[in-house]
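Quick log. Single chain, no ligands specified.
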Amino acid sequence: MRLSVVTPAAEPGITVDDAKRHLRVEHTEDDTYIAGLIEAAFVWIDAPDGWLGRAVREQGFEARFAGFCQRLGGYRVPWLSLPLLPVSAVTSVIYLDDRGNEQPLAPADYRFADTELRPAPGKSWPVTLDGPDTVRVRFTAGYADIPAPIRQAVLLLVGQWYVAREAVGKSDQAELPFAVSNLLSPYRVWTV
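-> predicted structure:
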């Protein structure tokens, strides 16, 4: 399975004004710098490669699979697990038929719950061409309203980076700050 961002987050998630209130900054000279810190904090925690292992800001993704079944724990299962939470919508499913032609799968032919895409009741998956990337699922993942603990963790990171502008600092700054990790940990997707 391969995952890529199709539509980056349109909203910053936290505004420069939000961060300035947190930092108690009233001037405008650092606005661009603060905006960069906000984006850096989200890139660090947000999907697909972020520390949380989930989408924070709403974004469009495409997951590519080798057919409609996948291996989980040594077994082939007849569903596809989308790799990010929270998923708000599946926008399209396209597959390569046994002749190599792209075919859209009608929404009535599948159902989606949590992160699993399964055939609709009474339906079965169509036959696909054998090989990688034969099924492409486009979906939207992320929060419409970012949870308060994640927002606070981003503001704490922005505050730390705003004050400590050097790459190397005290030894206690080498790891994720305790408060930030505590705020984010309940939202982290732990994989085996």
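The chain has four helices and ten strands.
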